[in-house]
Amino acid sequence: MNLTDPASVLAVIERERPDLIVHTAAYTNVGGAEKDRSECWTVNVEGTRYVARSANAVGAKLVHISTDYVFDGQTGNYAEDDTPGPVVNYYSLTKLVAEEAARAAERHLIIRTSFRPREFAYPVAFSDVYTGQDYVDIIAPEIALAVRHALEIEQGTLHIATERKSVFELARRRKPDVQEGTRAQAGVTLPGDVSLNTGRWAALKAQWSAQ
Ligand SMILES: NC(=O)c1ccc[n+]([C@@H]2O[C@H](COP(=O)([O-])OP(=O)(O)OC[C@H]3O[C@@H](n4cnc5c(N)ncnc54)[C@H](OP(=O)(O)O)[C@@H]3O)[C@@H](O)[C@H]2O)c1
Predict the structure, then answer these.
(1) 190 CB under 6 A from ligand 1?
(2) Which has the closest alpha carbon to 174: 114, 125, 112, 113?
(3) N or C, where is the chain less crowded by C-beta within 10 Å?
(4) Of all protein residues, whose CA lies closest to atom 30 belonging to ligand 1?
């Protein structure tokens, strides 16, 4: 489907009539979003609105993939019910508003997460950006587990990430010769510490493993 075309989104969802929709698509180029605001807004906010409406049309639950960037990065260890914002870049603004669009789905679960490709792709990694993000081969199975249980997870928001560390520390795990840098070198404003409190996720997993 083309997310920016509401008829296309509704047609696919009405044809498939799923119980669960996992909405992963987005405009994800954080730097590009500063110049390309209209496209980023249309895909992330309007696209999510069309998916939420279509979910309601067939009674499906919507799992919406969001980001740790909805927080300002001043304190870190953010819990699901901490107040988000103010966001520090345009991509983050659209993802924060997209969460509200997703909440228009009568049944929804918003997963805030963060991940990188299996290999660290850059020569430099920032030591003053703290995160709970991890490599996709570590995060994806966690998200898959949440998706398998999504119909039974209580409505709301869920953080899925690993422990707090700097991006430099994370990068060194798979690219030992990566150079240390600072976020002032990024072409876009990045939040300082968007590490997530994952207590809710840990409690859910403990509950399932006890069953
Ligand atoms: N990567 C991260 O660090 C990170 C962190 C936190 C949250 N997230 C969130 O996780 C989700 C997945 O991220 P990702 O890194 O896997 O993104 P990605 O690799 O950029 O993939 C985004 C997908 O969205 C699709 N898409 C874009 N515009 C579309 C449109 N108009 N209609 C239909 N499909 C469209 C793209 O399709 P084409 O390839 O055909 O363009 C692509 O398959 C996103 O919601 C993102 O915001 C990512």
Answers:
(1) no
(2) 125
(3) C
(4) 3
* CA 123 to chain CA mean position, Å: 24
Does ligand 1 lie within 6 Å of residue 4's CB atom? yes
Structure tokens, 161: 């990430």
Q: What is the pLDDT of residue 211?
A: 85
Mean residue pLDDT of the chain comes to 97
Q: What is the pTM of this model?
A: 0.97
Q: How far is residue 164's CA from residue 68's CA, in Å, rounded to a whole number? A: 12
Classify domain 6-210 at the CATH topology level.
Answer: Rossmann fold (3.40.50)
Residue located nearest, by CA, to atom 38 of ligand 1: 25
Residue ranges per domain, the chain?
A: 6-210
- Please name the residue whose Cα sits nearest to atom 27 of ligand 1: 26
Q: Which atom of ligand 1 is nearest to the CA of 136?
A: 1
- The per-residue pLDDT for range 3-60, each reduced to its tens digit, is 999 999 999 999 999 999 999 999 999 999 999 999 999 999 999 999 999 999 999 9
Give the residues across from 21 on adjacent strands.
62
